[in-house]
Every structure is written in structure tokens, then in C-alpha cells.
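hi support,

uploading two proteins for the ticket. first:
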Amino acid sequence: MIGWFKHLRTAFGASFLWLVCLIYFTQGFRSFVWTAVSYQLKDNLKLSPSASQFVTSIAFFPWSIKPLYGILSDCFPIRGRKRVPYLTLATLLSLLPWLVLGLSAFLRNTRIELMILLTAQNLGSAMADVVIDAMIAEAVRFERTSFAGDLQSISWLSMAFGGICGSLLGGYALINLQIDKIFLLFSVLPALQLFSCGLVDEGSVQGKAFPEGSASNGSDMMSGIIDEEKFSSEKSKISTLRRKKSQKYTKKAPTLENKLQAPDKKGPSLSPWYQSLKMATYTLFRAFHQPAILRPMAWFFLAHVTVPNLSTVMFYYQTEFLKLEASFLGTARVLGWLSLMIGTLTYNRYLKKMRLRYILMFTQVGVALLTVLDMVLVSRANVLLGISDKVTVLCGSALSDGINQFKFMPFLILSGQLCPPGVEGTLFALFMSINNLGSTVGSFVGAGLASVLNISSGSFDNLFLGIGIQVLCTFIPVAFLFLIPKEATGISA
């Protein structure tokens, strides 16, 4: 393990490797402070479950527009640098809201101001996530490609370790510290991240033939899209017609490239950045317009928006009706992280050769069964069976994240298969944003359902009905599995 880490440090530099580990650890450790946010909304602001879920859904919206951050850093360097300045800006956005919330009782206890600050904080975290992913991709490409898997592995381990630490310490911190102190304590991590940004060197893009580089990149992206169209057409029953269409695009591609890269006569000073932005935007929409990409992403989006998310309502139920302590819920979340890791290993060992349609269908059934476990908890049937509430909650936490990973892993694999060469980073960020946007919309739907059923703090009479509706909705995505490529498996192409 130590030798492996030394090899990575030699290949990429100690400061860069430290920054990668710190950022991913901080992303996982966010559970420490967001547990405090949940209690702040419930206990201090006295929000209903639906209102609390609405606030958190708005606050997490910046994670749904991640491609914008990638295009921004790709096309508009700051003082000749494309990554470190944006990472510094993102870190400041991650740091300042926690400092403000820790020092200002008024902003901390006002719904609108709190929501704005939390949204700004998520904007910084999402932007940092995009930028560090781009820096990892560039480091692997320019240093040693053989270290790609190792660098991704250490990133994952750092985030998982951060998640376990944050979940363990978050509940205990709430017992022993005031919420404002928790906000200030967490701000230490983005402060360290801000300091670490100054230790990483980044070459300037000034003085380079930018239009030529842009042209080359545009050519790679365009050819990647055309190759993807050819690949899709060869597997179609109407391959001849599709191939003619692909050849048609091939003939037109140079004309489109030249047109996109032609200098802007009206504004020559803006031409390099404008042409780069125009090429990136066009290529992104051109790639995503393909049915082979659009249809699977539509399924993953539907899988979220058609199922109401009642997680915040269940948090209220567990803390107010069942009287479960914050420390216990933190321990349950640790089991969720461990389950996620086990789910990943199980998928890689036993399921990656199975067709994705089958995996996703069984996953939806598994999620429905676990949701029934919530119905058992709410109906108090577990007490009649002699099973305590804590054991029931622990079983749900231990299984839910692992089963959901069986859906997330196919999403990652399929996203990697669908990305044409040259647009992997931006298109993958778009795929992740679609997934995040679907989760956000699902939270809005859950908040709306809780409001319609009059589920509020201290009034959970209709919660059983709400969970029953959630169970039925879980089977809706199964009817749309035809959107997933029939022959797709979990083995990367």
C-alpha cells in the first residue's frame, strides 16, 4: 500500500496527490456538516418535512449543471490558467458560506438566506468536483496512462473514508457541540483545500496557438461523434441506411468544423475563446442528440423523477416519532457506506457480464422490497414481530445503498461506453448532471406528495400511504427498460 502510494506521488507530485485526496475526502466528509443542516431545518427553523425537503432540493441544484463548469474552465482561462483559478474560486464558494453560517445567527435561522448560502456552498463543491476530475484526466494523459486506474482508486478510497468519518462523527458532534460550531469546524477542510491550491503548479495556455489547438480538439471531438454514429449504425437492422447517413455526416463534418473555427470578423479579439465555446457547445449537443445516447440517459432520468423521494420525511419520522438519536443515525449511515463498497465489489465480481436490462430490473424490484421495509417500520409491524426499530433501520441502511449501487454502477459503465472520443469529460459531466437533476426532481415530487398527504412534523398518519405510493412508482421505470441497449452489459467497451 505504501509503495503504491509512493509510485503515485512520484508520477504526479506530492502536492497534486495531496490535493486530490483532500478534495475527495472533503466530498465524503460533507455528511458531517449536512447532518447538522438537517437538524437546523427541523429543530431551529421548525420546517415541515416537505418544506425542509424543498430547501435541500434547491440547495443541491448546482450539482445538476456540472457541464457548465467544465465548459467554463475549458474555454475561458483566467490569467492563462484553466484549472487552478477555478478550483480556487470553487473552494472559496465552499468555504465562505460555512463561515457566515457559523458566525451569523440571523442568516443561520432565516429560511431564504440559509437556502441561498447552502446553494452557493453546493455550487463551489460541484465546481471543485468537475475541475479536479479534469485535472486528474490531464495528469494521467500527460504523465503515465498506466496510473489512471490507481489514481481513480485512491480518489474513491479517499471519498469513502471521508464518508465513513463524517457519518461517524456527525451524530456525536450534534450531541456535544452547537450547530454553529459544527459549521465552523467543517470550514477547516475547505480552508486547507484553499491553501493546497497554491501549492499546485499549472502551465499557462498563453502564448500557444490557441486556434490551432482548438481546431485539433474540435477535429477529435467531431471524429469521435462520427465514429459513434457509425458504431450505432452497424448494430442496427437498417444498417445500410444508417451507414449512408453516417457517411453524409462524415462528408459534412470538415465543412462544419471550418465554419465553427472560422475567425469572427466582427470581433477578432474574442475569436479564440468564442470559437472554443462555440465548438464545445455544438459538439456537446450534437453528441447528446444521438438516440444511442439520449435514450439510455432518458431512462436513468425517468428512474428518478417517477419515484417520489421521501427520505427527508423518513428522517423526521425516525427522529421525532421513533426518537432515534443522531449518533445512531450516523452509525446507520456508516453501514450504508460499507454496503455501497460491498455492492461495488459484488457487481464487479458477479454481475458485470449480465445484461444491463436485467440488472436494472432486479434493482428496481429490490428497491421496492426495501421500501416495503419502511412500510413495516411505519405500520409498527416490526414491533409485533419482536424486531426493534433500531434493527429495522440498520437493516434498511445496510441494504439500500448496496442495492442502489447496482443501478449506479451500470449508469457509470454505460456512460463510459456511450462517450465518443474527444468529449469524454464534458459529456460524462452531462450524464452525471442528468442523474443529479433526476434526483433533485424526485425530491421535489416527494415534497409535493408529502404536502398533498398533509404529512408534517408530528403528524405521520398518511406516511404509510405515501410509502405505498412510492413502492408502486418504483415499478414505473421497468416499463421503460426498452430505452436501454438490449445487448449492453457491465463490461466496458
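and the second one:
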Amino acid sequence: MGLAPEKLLLKWMNFHLKKAGYNKSVSNFSSDLKDGEAYAYLLNVLAPEHCSPATLDAKDPAERANLVLEHAERMDCKRYLTPKDIVEGSTNLNLAFVAQIFHQRNGLSTDNKISFAEMMTDDEQMSRDERCFRLWINSLGIATYVNNLFEDVRNGWILLEVLDKISSGSVNWKQATKPPIKMPFRKVENCNQVIKIGKQLKFSLVNVAGNDVVQGNKKLILAFLWQLMRFNMLQLLKNLRSHSQGKEFTDADILNWANKKVKSRGRTSYMESFRDKSLSNGIFFLDLLSAVEPRVVNWNLVTKGESDEEKKLNATYIISVARKLGCSIFLLPEDIIQVNQKMILTLTASIMYWSLQQSVEDSDSSPSPAPSVNSEDESSLGGEVSNLTIDDAASDTTVSSQFENEDPIVACNISAASNVANEDTPVASNNTTEDTPVASGNTTEDTPVVTPDAGVPPPIENEDSPVKE
């Protein structure tokens, strides 16, 4: 199941050809199919009721190819290619033709009654992690497409592409070898450079070597990818905050922002850490989504989250709403229900990224200075970014803890895909006082509240300027 589609089709085709008595092996969709014999054997074993002895007896490849297509049409396969395409070995058209045959009649039996549970990997959580990281890497827009994470990263090339994407200029391509790589030590060289760059980025890679990646150590690969994902996530947040003046973001900043955002809307839900079991009912994240965009949550669809079924409904709705806003999210409802701390962190960061991005876009498009939609962010995070440290209860990113902690290592993507806006997505208003959070500690009860006129941005509060009554 981890094979690329074209390789899976070749494997399927050779399986039936061997049953049909075809002595050759098909390794491509061009030269190996030019004479049409493989097609003739394949269709005869899949649809013997439509077979014709003339197909195999034909001497001319073009004539045989035409008989093959006629056989396929009797199987209700539409003719998208010509006999000439088969004889000339058109790779893409042959691939599409084989896929159509597979779709129409694959000849695979389910009489053995093997359950899907028996086909699942031994570690279901690790399989879920593989899916999340694979989707994240493919969303970055690198040249190589990942089909099977644990197999495809073993030569180090894909990891180098990812590192170059999120930390431009960090890879020395002169010392890297591009696949296909026949010499094993070249793979080790690639992976050694991956680990070297990881250490330069201050990842926790104690007793980790490039050979561990080459050998396919799944836990170490997931641990490295989680730190890579987290680095990318924090860099995206840092780049959006010009007022941070180059100061680094931490997990605690994300936690603090989320709680302040929810509190600013008058909600009582609170997140103590990314491990907080109370998060399983989903109410906090629905409050957070409502805080960043008041009209996006339909509270008639929200349950109390008391039973497992209600929790799943809320978790599914959270993912739907977040994607509706434009957040790039790859987590599953189970990750919220089980309070997977790393997935909870990346979900919160994804919502934070979207919210701050709207603030940046609004400030760029505004013709005159106006108070930020996220004024509470300016006050609360501006001075705390350099002082806050990562709380062990909030996040745990060391490789050693990956082995000790049974919690899954999963992640979601908050890449630039979150820039995509949906036409149906409601847009937060900058001109409503209710949507403007009040900075904690910067206002007093005596401070008058100014209600701006429609279409006119409110004035900037300044000690030296008078406030209009």
C-alpha cells in the first residue's frame, strides 16, 4: 500500500501475467508493452469470456494491439488510445489504459476474508504520524513527491530538499547526491549532512547519526521531522510579527496567545497546557476559532462534549471550521479526542498563524494608521517573547523524550497554503469594537471607549492626543 500508483499497477499486472503463463516480466509502460502480448495475456485472464485466439496468433504488433483494444471495449473500457500508441510505447497513455483496466476489472478476490484490521500496521499511531508528515512535506512544494515517508527519506535527498525549503541556503548541494543512488555510502553522506544541519538549527539530536536514517529507524525519523515541522511553524509566526524584532517564539507564547484570545471574547474555557485533558471535548478550540472570527462557528452544531460520540462530533467540526478559515490542517478527530500534545500545539499554532496573518494583511491594506485587530497580541506577546521559556507541561521536543513518551509524534502543516482564502469564509471586521481585544494591563476603568463611525477606522489611543468624547 505504500507503493507509488504506477508501481502498484505494475505489480498487479505481473501478478496476473504470471497466472496466465506469461514468461516475461513487465517493468515499464513503454517498451515492455509495445508488442501487445502482455495486454493479450492480461485481458485473457481477466475476461476469458471475451478472449479471442486470434489476439495471440497475430504476427503484426499493430494488428494485435487493435485486437487488444477491441477486447477491452467488450469489457466496457473506453478507447482512449490507438493501436499506434501501444506500438510506439506511449508511457502515459499505456499507464492510463492499465489503470482503466484495473478499475473496470481487477480480478482480485476477497474470498479470503482478511479484515482491514489485520492489514493495518502494528503501530496505528505511527501510521497516522507517517500520514501527517507525508502530507506536510508534499504541501511544501519540493521537487520530489513522497509516497512512503519511511522509505523515501532513507537516501536523505528529500530531507535535504525540505531543509533547503524552510531554511534557505543551509544545504551544500555540491556535497549531496541526487537519486537514484547506487552506492550506499552516498546515502549516508546525504543523511550526515541532514543531521549536521539539524544540529546547526539547534535540534535535539543526541546520539543520532545519518546511518540511523539510512537504516530506516522510524522513531528517530519521526523525532527529527517533528523538530523540523516545529522549527518551520515558529519561523512562520516570527516572520509575521514585525514588532517581535527578531525575538524567537516559543511554545509558551502560542499557549499564552490562545488563552488571551479566548478570554478577550468573554469565554471561560482555558488551556493549562497542550496536554490538558479537558481539551478532548473541543470546546476550547471552538471558542478560539470564534474569537479569531466571530461568525465562523455555528453554535447550534456544537455539542457539550460529554460522551465519546459528542467529542468526535466537536472534533470533526473543529477541523472543518479551521479548514474553512484557510488553515492547513492534517490532523484527525482522534488526535483532538486523545489530546495528542504535539498535534494540539500545531493546531493552535495554525489558528494563530491565520489570525496574525489577517492582522498583517489588514495593516498593509489600510491607508491610514489604525489600531491592530490583535491589539492584545501587541501588548502581551511583544514583551514576553524573549522572556518565556518552553514549559515541560506545554511541549516536549527532545529526541530522548520521544522514546520515553508514548504520546504520538504528529504534526499539522501551517505552511503558506493557509494564505488561500475561501470565498465563503467570513472575514473578520476591523471596525467593530467587540472584535478588538483589549490589552491586559494597558487600560483602566476610567478610560473612555470611543465608538467609531461606520467605515471610519477608530483613532489611535495616545496619551498625548485628546480622546473624542
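thanks. also noticed: The mean pLDDT is 78.
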